[in-house]
Amino acid sequence: MVHFSGELLPLVAALVAAGGVAGFMAGLFGIGGGAILVPVLLSVLIPAGVDPSIAMHVSVATSLGVIVPTSLRSFFAHRARGAVDHQLLTSWALAVPAGVMLASWVASWISGDGLKLVFMGIAFMVAMRMLFNRESWRLGDDIPGNPLRTLIGVCIGFFSTLMGIGGGVMTNTFMTLFNRSIHQAVATSSGVGVLISIPGVIGMMIAGWGDPDLPPLSVGYVNLLAVLIIIPLSIAMAPVGAKVAHFMKRRHLEIAFGIFLLVVCARFAYSLL
Fold this sequence. Notes:
Strand 1 and strand 2 form a beta hairpin. The protein is mostly helical and 273 residues long. Helices cover 75% and strands 1% of the residues. Helix 1 runs parallel beside helix 10, helix 5 packs parallel to helix 7 and helix 5 packs parallel to helix 9. The protein has one domain. It is globular and about 50 Å long. A two-stranded antiparallel sheet has the order 1-2. This is Probable membrane transporter protein.
């Protein structure tokens, strides 16, 4: 357990490093959210003294807390440009949060290793998409109707919450495979991030309520100290990463992000041995 006396400073220093690294990498790869933040947070929380049994829970929940303001800001910006598919978003207004709340219940009893396995499984599939994706790949000419659409919304909410991500990669993949433009997919994903992050934060607060091993300034599994430190640092560092990205080709960035995810999967797998 992390105590206020003497041990809070290392935690703050670790969170400062996590915020800067996550922001830079989000800007570099053009993908925000937990796909980057969760492994970065996990790599600094345990050395800072957070109990290993809940470090993954705190990383996932805190990542969702960071996503709330960024997804809201992104959604309103995309909506102002008229790029959001409101019909799809409205059809998921109950399905995605239902998946989120189901995941929050699962998070209340699943182990940290179990969360790592979920993250590894989805991250590996995303890595394969990044490494071998072709824009010509299609599963259909338009997004399917119910009940398949509702089921997909529930799954996106469920797995995104357990990973601590805003659902952008999953939503982008789903929409582009069904003949939607990447611009509309990205815009709509920002709205899905709102549907995931807000109920996700509430659910993870409830799931971790009263855990004796939580780090200081935590409400359930969400560490408010981390959220307050990481948000401004990630916003400040993201443009630096984006500037570096301009010197690289898009395909090279996709490959680099795929390799990054495979490295994360390998590290998580090693930690489970």
